[in-house]
Amino acid sequence: MTATGKQDLTTIHGAKAPFSLPALPYADNALAPVISSNTLGFHYGKHHKAYVDNLNKMVAGTAHADSSLEGIIKAAAGKPADAGVFNNAAQIWNHTFYWNSLRAGGGGKPGKALLDRIEADFGSFDTMKDEFTKAALTQFGSGWAWLVVKGGKLAISKTANADTPMVHGEKPLLTIDVWEHAYYLDFQNRRPDYVAAVLDKLIDWGFAEANLG
Ligand code: MN3
Question: Cα(92) to centroid of ligand 1, in Å?
């Protein structure tokens, strides 16, 4: 854990194969009732774990076996022959980042340093929140919504399936998983209710501030 109570993602993402499933940064009932322990149990214990298990099998004995997770993501991006490696590696990274983007008692507004940046780059906090929500709701099918830094400015971005900002020249600050497995047990098809509840009650602006550096 770092000074902000979050995990040291640099160490986690810089580790080499065989990869291990990083511990959750809180108990599996910490995000209830927005994200139930049942959802977290499946999402972390089955989906996230499967990406780790799959990647370990895929990279064993290959040129990727001596690379870090981030090295594999960057090396495999955009290469059709490495699509499976990219998808599993990026999903490991995205999920660890997502768990750390949330906390019990989150939501509200960021501290002054980040709030000033948001107001400068979006006009207002509410405009940024509306754009974040819109990205999360308009990502067709599976994917992710992100608050990122791109070209020195804060921006909202969305990615499909396993795709991840680092391979698009963007530095992520926060993410929301909008794959159905992230919310279906708790909200069924109501993605708007899940996204609103995450932004209002769970999103960890302190994590975003720490990532801003
Ligand atoms: Mn997921």
Answer: 9
Residues 75 and 165 occupy one common structural domain = no
Query: How buried is 148 (Cβ within 10 angstroms: 0-12 exposed, 13-18 middle, 19+ buried)?
Result: buried
Closest CA to 100 of 6, 213, 206, 211: 6
Task: Find the 43 Cα to ligand 1 centroid distance in Å.
Answer: 6
16 has a pLDDT exceeding 90: no
- Domain-embedded: residue 164: yes
Residue 94 maps to which CATH number?
1.10.287.990
Q: What is the per-residue pLDDT across 80-113, written as a single tens digit (0 to 9) for each? A: 999 999 999 999 999 999 999 999 999 999 999 9
For residue 102, the tally of other CB atoms under 10 A from its CB is: 25
Q: Residue with structure tokens 């974040």?
A: 132
Mean pLDDT (whole number) for 191-204: 97
Closest CA to 77 of 196, 135, 159: 159
Contact between 136 and 86 under an 8 Å Cβ cutoff? The reply is no
Q: From the CA of 29, how far away is ligand 1's center (Å)?
A: 17
Please tell me the pTM assigned to this model. Answer: 0.95
Q: Measured between alpha carbons, how far is 12 from 2 in angstroms, rounded to an integer?
A: 12
Indicate if 187 and 124 belong to the same structural domain: yes
Domain residues for the domain of 95 are: 9-14+35-100
Task: Say if CB 15 and CB 68 are below 8 A apart.
Answer: yes
